[in-house]
Amino acid sequence: MSEESTVMLSALQHYLFCPRQCALIHVEGVWTENFLTAAGRQLHERVDRRGGETRRDVHLATALRLVSNRLGLTGVADMVEFHRHDSPTDEKGCCIAVKLSGRNGFWRPFPVEYKRGFPKAHRADEVQLCAQALCLEEMLGVTIASGALFYGETRRRSNVAFDAELRSLTEDVAAKVHELLRLGKTPPPVITKGCRGCSLFETCRPENVGGRDSTRRWIRNMLEGAGV
């Protein structure tokens, strides 16, 4: 699959948080950093710098490149833990573990995504993590039952089960992001309590009823009225 037909894994998280934010970033190429995004970036960078290491029965792989041709997704996993397993299959005969180069035995992948803040009421973080699991499943030919979200403010992990509901939601969001990018149009703003914390707030200006689109229409109307 060509790069033009794939979308970033992060776009799914952006879309569930706010479709307009997703379009501003992934259609218009707008990005502005604030304290929150800077702190999040630094957390990711600290994880990435750790590199690969093995601790007894767990191998840690950081900054692992992911891709799903089926869903048209690409991105980088903060960390994938590979847990040593006695066999490549579970009690139902499903393949759950793989061989790793230079290491004996079988290893079960377990994706871990690092987030700066707190667990959220919406499922955007869970969808991003599930998308990583779907990529790994396609790449490795395994079934991944769960992963984890690590939140910097609580310093704790939240385990996430990749059940049928979350998988279906993730695939649905991936399809909607592809459609958003195909249309190339930025949706109008919808004001929520999360707007003030968004790094794109000053660019989006959601308090303006039509946002940037209304501004563009106003400028266009003024120019047309002036005969320009």
Would you mind describing this structure in some detail?
Residues 33-41 and 211-215 have low confidence and may be disordered. The chain has 228 residues and is α+β, with helices and mostly antiparallel strands. α1 (9-17) packs antiparallel against α2. The protein folds into two domains: 3-18 and 33-186, Lambda Exonuclease, Chain A (Alpha-Beta Complex), CATH 3.90.320; 188-228, no CATH class. It contains seven helices and eight strands, in the order βαααβββββαββααα. The radius of gyration is 20 Å and the shape is elongated. Strands 1, 2, 3, 4, 5, 6, 7 and 8 form an eight-stranded mixed β-sheet that branches.
What's the CATH architecture of the largest domain? Alpha-Beta Complex
Rg from C-alpha positions? 20 Å
The level 1 CATH classification of the largest domain is Alpha Beta
Strand coverage percent: 25-35%
Give a brief rundown of this model:
By secondary structure, this protein is of the alpha+beta class. The protein has seven helices and eight strands.
List the helices and strands and how they pair.
Blueprint (H helix, E strand, L loop, with lengths): L6 E2 H9 L1 H8 L8 H15 L3 E3 L2 E11 L4 E13 L12 E3 L2 E13 L8 H17 L5 E6 L4 E6 L2 H20 L17 H4 L6 H15 L3
Parallel strand pairs: 1-4, 6-7
Antiparallel strand pairs: 2-3, 3-4, 4-6, 5-6, 7-8
Helix pairs in contact: 1-2, 1-4, 1-5, 4-5
